[in-house]
Amino acid sequence: MAKEDIITGLDIGSTTIRVAVAQTGADGEVNIIGASEHPAEGISKGVITSIEDAVSSISGALEKAERMTGIPIEHATVSVSGAHVISQESHGVVAVAKADGEIKDDDVERVIEAAQTVATPPNHEILHVIPRQFTVDGQTGIKDPLGMTGVKLEVDAQIILGQVSQIKNLTKCIYRTGVDIDDLVLGILAASESVLTKRQKELGVGLVNLGGLTTSLMVFEEGEVIHTKIMPIGAGHITNDIAIGLRTSVDVAEKVKTEYGTAIPDDISKREEFDLSNIEPNEDGIVSKREVAEIIEARMEEIFSMIKKELKQVEKDGMLPAGLVFTGGGSRLPELIDLAKREFNLPASVGVPKDFTTAIEKVNDPVFAVAIGLCIWGANISGKGGSTFGRFSSVGEVTGKMKGWFKSLMP
User: Which residue, 150, 153, 346, 369, could crosslink 191 as a Cys pair with Cβ 3.0–4.6 Å?
Assistant: First the structure.
């Protein structure tokens, strides 16, 4: 098994770190040969809060994956998330270089570089430049200008930026585990690679990743990203609400949510109850299932109202033909999809990773959407696949500089 055929996706979540190890075939097919999960410590809302704890958690997840595959993990494609990630629109213009006016690869690269010269907020660096459309001599709506003839080439792009200090802290943690970074990829963008179909992106779709402490939204139309937002609220806040409402511990509240929770209380009889001692012998008290559902519904409605606000901002509220696709741990909540259909008046579904082969059953789960998306992304940037975005991905200068620095510090 050649080392260059092994690709690792490292999903740094706020509550769980997930690793997927893939082998790529000659035809570009991604085969998942290993997967692991490890509780995340030292990470909150996508931000490193303790480097020592984060390094320990990441190492734990990588070791589990190495034991499963028998292959040492030396490099990985890593997810970035957190409310520090922002997006903004940009426009680039260049003159076509060739005298005959034919647009070549270097013209496309130059116009994308021109789009990057926007005024970025202080202490932020560019993670991705995602072209939405090109314009050749005033003709708009061009997806791929290569080979066309013109004098002036323009691009409308979405620039995704992350806070330099947060990216530095994340890369520091990864390098301290002895793993090289192939690329840093926005988590929700990676999830879109594994969950969404080309047709959904063309029609117009919103991808929602319900994580532990953050909720990410990415909106697509005509195959392109038109809006990105990461909100500092997630499924873990539902657990906290239940813990407060039932006056119990967070661990017990999490079990209540997973075993008895549902997003719509209307279908539950007021007489339906359960005993907390069935979950935790030290706890006592009879709890109404409907009361738990009402707590969940209230928090989900708050999250949905935030998503709705973002959709209104890009004039897509109720206007996405392919609807909303939910992924991440929070998407497993019973009746979440019914609540989403009611709140958004749109089609809604749970997004499970696709476009890969595996013998490992547990990866066919929305929680592995980002980790598997990172493997697909890694295969595409290594030239073994055909990613929508791989060509425009950038690890950024900060991580490149830090790589050499950390290598020199390693014993």
Answer: 369
Residue pair 194/373 in contact (Cβ under 8 Å)? The answer is yes
d(CA 90, CA 158): 6
Using CA of residue 122, residue 128, residue 133, residue 134, what is the dihedral sign?
A: positive
Same domain, yes or no: 76 and 151: no
Six-digit token string for 205: 């779709």
Same domain, 345 and 398: no
d(CA 350, CA 8): 24
360/32 Cα distance (integer angstroms): 8
DSSP, res 140 = E
Classify residue 275 as exposed, middle or buried by CB count within 10 Å of its CB (0-12, 13-18, 19+): exposed
| Rounded Cα distance, 190 and 369, in Å | 8
pLDDT tens digits for 149-193?
999 999 999 999 999 999 999 999 999 999 999 999 999 999 999
Cβ contact 37:18 at 8 Å: yes
Instruction: Calculate the average pLDDT of the chain.
Output: 90
Tokens coding 190: 């990676």
Which residues are registered as beta bridge partners of 230? Answer: 216
Which residue range is the domain that position 130 belongs to? 86-159
Task: Give the pLDDT score at 406.
Answer: 47
Using alpha carbons, select from 41, 43, 5 the residue that is nearest to residue 23. Answer: 5
* Whether 31 and 174 share a structural domain: yes
**In which element (H, E) is residue 338 found?**
helix 336-344
The two beta strands, 124-136 and 139-142, are antiparallel
With the CA atoms of 366, 372, 374 and 380 taken in that order, what torsion angle do they form, in degrees rounded to the nearest 10?
-130
Q: Among 124, 159, 194, which residue terminates a domain?
A: 159
